[in-house]
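Hello Y.,

Per our agreement to keep a running log of every chain we model this quarter, I'm adding this entry. I've kept the format consistent with earlier entries: sequence first, then predicted structure.
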Amino acid sequence: MTEFRNLDLSDPQDLSASPSIEWALKELDLAIDSGKGRVALEIAGPGTELSAPVELPDAAEALALWQRDGATVAWGSDERGLVYALTELADRARHAEDHAAPFAGELPLSERPSAPIRSIARLYCNESEDSGWYHDRDGWRDYLSMLVTNRFNRFSLTLGMAYNYPYHNPWIRDVYFYFPYPFLFDLPGHNVSVRNVTEEERDRNFETLKFIAREAARRGLDFQLALWTQRYDFDDTPNAYHQISGLDEKNLAPYCRSALTHLLTDVPEITGLTFRVHVEGGIAEGDYDFWREAFAGVADAGRPVEIDMHGKGLDHETLELARASGMPLAVSPKYMAEHMGLPYHQSAIRDKEQPPEVARSQREQLSEGSRKFLRYSYGDLLTKDKDYSVLYRIWPGTQRVLLWGDPAMASGYGRLSTFAGSDGVEWCEPQSFKGRMGTGVPGGRFCYKQPDLVPRRDWEKYLYTYRVWGRGLYTPDGPRDGWARYLRKHCGVLADACEAGLSAASRVLPLVSLAHGPSASNNFYWPEVYTDLGLIDGSGKRAYAFDMPEPTRFGNAPTFDKELFATPREFALKLLNGEEEHRYSPLDVADWLIDLAERCEAAVTDARRAETLDGREAADPVEAQRMLLDIGISGGLARFFAGKFRAAIWAELFIETGATELIEPMIAQARRAVAAWDAIAELSRDTYQDDLGFGPQSWLRGSWHARQAEMRAELLDLEALRGRAGTESVPTEPQVAAAIATLLAKEPTRAELTSLSAPETFERGKPFTVQLSGAPSGTEPLLHFRPVDQSQHWQTLAMDGAGNGHSATIPAEALDTPFHLQFFASWTAEGAAHLAPGLAPDLSNQPYGLAMQA
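Predicted structure for the entry above:
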């Protein structure tokens, strides 16, 4: 039982009368009662004068906790901060090992948020798999409570993302909530209806939406509704399960305007709307009349509602239309294409994302034309004087099934999602796009074959993921106990091994995604269940050829940061030409992956040893089994891709020269990759479903064991290079021998984390000097710099030696820009490339400097 006292005597209103604080107090009471304990609690809100052993940060959503005179004091800088303080205590009580000390852990404690917006998006993509969770009210109560406990402050219910192309698309089938309004309500004065949806079903859908919004607000969560599709060819979807009638080009905009106003009026808890404003949302780019009507519909609700515009295809005219509505504005670009990379923002986008001379079509005049650089990053949005929020969205292309949980990387996102004045991040949760594009099957949200591995609800597998992610975004330097207590309770003696293993496992696929980018689209590239891209020729062309430069092979796949990472082909050509490579090479990536693989394997071994020595199973054996299984698969993926990166260097050298000597090392590395995949297949065969369906194409289906034959086939093709009929041995020329020698002797690229120094700010149109220490005399460091604008290219300056260091001054004319500035240095010494600052061992820092414009 909890006995509490309000210390905020200056405020006559009882804090506990706030709905969110009342909810949090009940959560705490339930947690204490579950342990049959009794505690004394004192609470205080903003403006309270208290003598405390810890300072309450002067920031929104901050909290402080301490103990005095036998009572625990919970203090919040505002209502949400107090909710976080109370839910922190409730979480401690639920995980307490000693119920006599329910709040054990670091005290006193003072925390403030790093990322102002910390959002989770849950996507409704198909009727078969998603209607169950949509109408599960007890599930919503638990889910939303979990989000708040883990310090998320926004929940985005996302509708209309089932398909990307709404024009004359015969494959459109499952349109439930794709164009959502007529599935939710009937608008008087508009004769719009949906076939095969009864009035009762429609009303139930809307009542559920209202319930979700109320429950989010009750917990202090902002409720965002994402409406990604505003039109499709309603009269040309012959295979759609539900047909919409009553809409045409003349009445679409007025209908959508009225629908938005009705939605916001009837669901007052909606705090923001997200719109896809490029062609894939059904509105041709340049059709400003539609968006003028739609944004007016938001304003017609008569209260502030954030208009969040997805970044792809966004232009200044659309921004101006939103601005004219008088509503708060936000722009949400993708963090790194449709994948999850390392926490820093890619320093350069792929060449494929630069604007073409001629747009692909008139209705794609922006996203595939003049504004193409905004497709997959922040583009030119981060000006000094912007009047809109910038929220990054992490798309679900990289990792959809396996557990994720690296505190260092989550903390990196917490620090770096505010890059250059940005405001935070929205993460598309695990299993987003499951059953997409009409591939859903009843019960398909659960990916396991073994019934005992299936959690009660799909998201409960990822409870540790949400915990690590949310707390890292809120307080990057927060106490380890915030996530470790969960592992202690559920994994018992295996807790340390699971923590270490998941930390390593969670870095594998983000690193692979950054360094190997055959497609920016999640519809084609799924590194978690990889569709093989051949080292020389053959497999993968149907999946990748449209979105990468020719030739379509592994070594030529671009990286998602061409300024800091080299492809195998680029690296091989520099080896042959005797040139230095200042970027991270494929060998560096492979070395990192092997280290991560070894750490995953060590964690699994340590877990088995701990279990044996202790003589007890984990407190929750199924939870630990799921974790160790995914750690094992992730470790196998690390070894697979390490083999592919290394083999690709040899393959590119062979393709360029034909030298016979290069065949065997290529095959040896490829064989290691296939052996790793075989090991993954053995782990997944009896545990994961044969078809993990995230779309209709082969590269969005299958499982690790289903890909096994594909991986083995490429190895057989490579082995067939030996002794091909009609071929003779090609001798190794001196140039090739030198390249091989350099490759075999290559030292890892070294990060000089503290060598670069410069002011934190600069003045527009004035020179800016950067200092470098640590580069030996005789070296020739380069300063690389660029305004924080992805439409521009990086420039370099030679750094002059001066005393014990080097320096370079960026000229005034280069800084006559509305953007902030980013920069790094590179040099070569004793056969090794050096980058300042470069990437830290945990791969979670920002590898370049940033100066904000004053």
